[in-house]
Amino acid sequence: LSGLDPAQPYFQDTPIEVRLDKTDADFVDVIHTDSAPTIPYLGFGIGPAIGHIDFYPNGGEEMPGCGKNALSQIVDLDGIWEGTRDFVACNHLRSYKYYSDSIIYPDGFLGYSCTSYDAFQTENCFPCPAGGCPNMGHYADKFKDRFKDSSFAKLYLNTGEAKDFALWRYKITATLSGSKKVTGYANIALYGSDGNTRQHQIIKGTLKPDNTYTAFIDTEVNIRTVTKVKFLWNNNVINPTFPKIGASAITVQSGESG
User: Fold this and answer.
1) Same domain, 178 and 189
2) What DSSP line would sit under 116-161, residue for residue?
3) Is 49 helix (H, G, I), strand (E, B) or coil?
4) Closest CA to 216 of 183, 237, 190, 236
5) What is the residue-level pLDDT of the chain in tens, covering all 258 positions?
6) What helix, strand, coil percent values describe the chain, rounded to 5?
7) Are residue 161 and residue 177 in the same domain, yes or no?
8) Are residues 94 and 84 in the same domain?
9) 0.70 exceeded by the pTM?
């Protein structure tokens, strides 16, 4: 039984007889996309974990792409009716859009077991354990035996701003080279056996040669085997000395396989 952002008003903190609960089926998975408090944030979705596994994409409260201005959201690519609905309840409706996208991405929407969304964005919850990370959405039941008798499990992941929503998580470790530090930013793009990514920012601020930097990126492609990494940097101000920064080493770790 899959709960798509079950309702918060009149249901949160009520007895299990009147709301969705893990006792309602052999396996209950839940996607939380609008779990901010109803007052004052107008969250429509329930916040606490209530299933065998509960997914909190993007933290479960504010979904990427839902912060657009009213006009651009209403005059949406999917039509004025769809855009109007999204403007009124964009976060809440993301749950079914993630679910429908998950059907065509059986290797996507991996949920990382974590204590909170803040912890998910650190090294504490990466990579997936030996048995793999559960897939949010249609294929969540592949993991029902692992979580069937457990207490509530909270799983976190990030999604894209628009369809297609699936993203794949990588840990990037880069050691810089050069003669002196500069202020700016560095991007990388990953090339792999199953496709290439766009550029993703991994460092912003002071770039120091011989320092090692770690970042997590969520890519729009599951590249599988890495074949090449492109490293690019830019300084924020015009520097007449034309400093040069390179990368002496870059390590790419897949969250899916470790």
Assistant:
1) yes
2) -HHHHTSGGG-S--TT-PPBSSTTGGGGHHHHTTSS-EEEEE---S
3) coil
4) 190
5) 999 999 988 888 899 999 999 999 999 999 999 988 877 767 788 999 999 999 999 999 999 998 754 454 444 555 554 554 555 588 999 999 999 999 999 999 999 999 999 999 999 999 999 999 999 999 999 999 888 776 779 999 999 999 999 999 999 999 999 988 999 999 999 999 999 999 999 999 999 999 999 999 999 999 999 999 999 999 877 777 778 899 999 999 999 999
6) 20, 30, 45
7) no
8) yes
9) yes
- In this structure, the answer to whether residues 60 and 153 fall within a common structural domain is yes
Amino acid sitting at position 192: G
- Of the CA atoms within 13 Å of residue 64, those in its CB half-sphere come to 16
Take residue 226 and report the two structure tokens written for it.
């890495």
Same domain membership, residue 147 and residue 27: yes
What is residue 16's DSSP assignment?
A: G
Number of domains in the chain: 2
Closest CA to 56 of 13, 139, 117: 117
Tokens of 160: 């894209």
Q: Give 233-239's long-range contacts (Cβ < 8 A, gap of 24+).
A: 233/182, 233/184, 233/185, 233/186, 233/187, 233/203, 233/207, 234/184, 234/185, 234/186, 235/182, 235/183, 235/184, 236/183, 236/184, 236/185, 237/183, 239/182
The answer to whether 97 and 165 are in contact (CB under 8 A) is yes
